[in-house]
Amino acid sequence: MKFEHLVQINDPSLPGIDWLTRQQLWFGLVARAWKPTRFVLGLEDAQVTQTGQQGNVTTLARVLNYGPFQIEDTTELIDEQRTETRIVANQFCGDSTLTISIEEPEAGELWLRFQYQVGDAPATEGGLEVSSHDVDEIRKQAYRAADIDTVRMIRELALAMPTQQDNKLKPH
Questions:
Q1: Which of 138, 159, 142, 151 has its CA nearest to residue 39?
Q2: pLDDT value, residue 124
Q3: 3-class DSSP string for the chain
Q4: Cβ contacts of 66 within 8 Å, gap of 6 or more
Q5: Is 159 exposed, middle or buried (0-12, 13-18, 19+ CB in 10 A)?
Q6: What is the rounded distance in angstroms from the CA atom of residue 67 to the CA atom of residue 46?
Q7: What is the pLDDT of residue 160?
Q8: Cβ–Cβ < 8 Å for 154, 19
Q9: In angstroms, what CA-CA distances link 58 with 31, 34, 82, 168?
Q10: pLDDT, tens digit, for every residue of 108-156?
Q11: 44 and 67 in contact (C-beta within 8 Å)?
Q12: Residue 159, CB half-sphere, CA atoms under 13 Å: how many?
């Protein structure tokens, strides 16, 4: 299944909402990669098992613990542009990729594009009879809700983060 959608970050028609800078948005995506338990419902623990750096790309190998099962993934952080997370297929899920890109069609007008490529999960016996279309639709709704929640969390982090305009240190 392939699925993508946009979430608008800065909306000129909503003057009551604080605008985020690209740096604040990026900081939130980096926080999501390093501390996914703050962003992903049901995730009990996450361990970064290996890191690497090549140019403007930071790579994290992680083990995500959901209680009854674990998932291994690799996340690439492409500096202030996008994150790409690849899940390794296991008995619970197929190979999958999530790319979150920062888009800025006009100065200050920020969007996040979420792109999912989800491989089929291994077949299980005795499961419910549900069409793959129904499963995909449920999955898309869950992805949208989780992505909107990610933006909410990024906004919360941004409110607590000093800005360069305040002449304070920029968090790393």
A1: 151
A2: 56
A3: CEEEEEEECCCCCCCCCCCCCHHHHHHHHHHHHHCHHHCCCCCCEEEEEEEEEECCEEEEEEEEECCCCEEEEEEEEECCCEEEEEECCCCCCCCEEEEEEEEEEECCEEEEEEEEEECCCCCCCCCCCCCHHHHHHHHHHHHHHHHHHHHHHHHHHHHHCCCHHHCCCCCC
A4: 42, 43, 44
A5: exposed
A6: 11
A7: 87
A8: no
A9: 13, 11, 11, 25
A10: 899 999 999 998 766 655 555 557 788 889 999 999 999 999 999 999 9
A11: yes
A12: 8
**CA–CA separation, 82 vs 80, rounded Å?**
6
Nearest to 18 by CA among 159, 157, 149: 159
Two tokens at 87? Answer: 């899940």
The fourth-level CATH superfamily of domain 2-122+129-161 is START domain (3.30.530.20)
Q: Which residues, including other chains, have CB under 8 Å from residue 108's CB and lie 6 or more apart?
A: 10, 19
Query: Mean pLDDT, the chain, as a whole number?
Result: 88
